[in-house]
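Researcher: Let's walk through a ligand-bound prediction step by step. First, I give you the protein sequence. Second, the SMILES string for magnesium ion. Third, you return the three-dimensional complex as structure tokens. Ready?
Model: Ready.
Researcher: Here are steps one and two:
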Amino acid sequence: MEEATATALIAGAPDVTLLLDRAGRIVHANPAARRLLGEGIAGQAWLDLLDDFSREKGATLLARSWVAGGVADWELDHLGPAGAPVLISYTTYLLPGVEPPLLAAIGRDQTVKLELTAQLAATNQQLEGALLALERAHAELKQTQSQLVQSEKMRALGQLVAGVAHEINNPAAFIANNLAHLATLLPGMSALFEAYQPLRALTGASVRAEIEAAEGVVEVEYLWSDLADLVTESQDGIERIRNIVLSLRNFARLDEAELKEADINEGLRSTLALIRPQCKNRIQITESYGILPTTVCHPGQLNQVFLNLLTNAVQAIEGEGQIWVTSACRDDRINVIIRDSGKGMDSATLARLGEPFFTTKPVGAGTGLGLAVSVGIINRHQGQLRFASQPGNGTTVTVELPVTR
Ligand SMILES: Nc1ncnc2c1ncn2[C@@H]1O[C@H](COP(=O)(O)OP(=O)(O)O)[C@@H](O)[C@H]1O
Ligand SMILES: [Mg+2]
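Model: Step three, the predicted complex:
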């Protein structure tokens, strides 16, 4: 290559091209280097052009290059002429066969690349934000959809339940009446039976044998006590059926009860009066009523909620225990808190509360409707029902209601 061509090659190179002497001074800087790092850089110590953080790194690079030779790649920060940082990635090598020795440093400005990277990162962040918003919107949509499906299902279930409850209610009522009647007849029948006994002595041997055979079939010595037990058990059973039917009806048509201005404390007190007989000697109830404004509500329905919650509290306590009932009002929100020292719930149970027919209780003890009904009632009052519980640590239920005037 001719010398003029070699000079043009260096002068026209878009990359920074520097030659450094053994003392680290710049003996040659091409136009690209001068444009980027300052017109007066020739003659300056190259290390002086670096920013404070890169200077030590630059010194190491120089020392290694002079001792070890070879090609090295380094990224170094400069303080540009305008004081703005300039990141340059250098490739350095010793010029072969040159005396005194010179080190070539060819560098490419990375500032634009950095800016692009920063822009890309910003765009990326915006994209991520948009994606997040989309995901959230999607989740909300899904939630709304499942709520819609759920409320549609509940409506259908409500109708079905109301129908079934009605159908069961009539036969249950006459079975209950008949059983009550039977119970009153039994003593008279057994007295009649006893009154017939002396007649045996007056009849012939063949009739007596017939009577004795028939008595053997029904095991006459237990007959009357068995009959009485059967009637009592059946009455228990029918009572349970009627209770279930009652909860089913409450569950199915709640909007029928009337709306009026009421004192929540009064409802709590009267509901507690219903519960107290089940607690005597076993469960201590502590009441603490705050001053509450009256509020427009369905008082009968709210009492039903309190009854359901208190019943659960009582049923959660095995042996002796405590129930605390508290009411308070702040910022136009009424809070009723029912806490028990019972056996508590695990997270799997907590997650299913309010689901119709979800119960952990044995058949006969629970229908799994108490909380489903309560959640419905509280929602209709624009309130909230919250549960806090741990296994073995009791349960706290908070009923929050807005004050409505
Ligand atoms: N205070 C409580 N302590 C422990 N478990 C409770 C409590 N309240 C509700 N639960 C749990 O929630 C379930 C559903 O309650 P609920 O809807 O009232 O139906 P049920 O009482 O008929 O089972 C209960 O079976 C019980 O497992
Ligand atoms: Mg219950």
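Researcher: And what stands out?
Model: Residues 118-252 form one domain. DSSP finds eleven helices and twelve strands in the chain.
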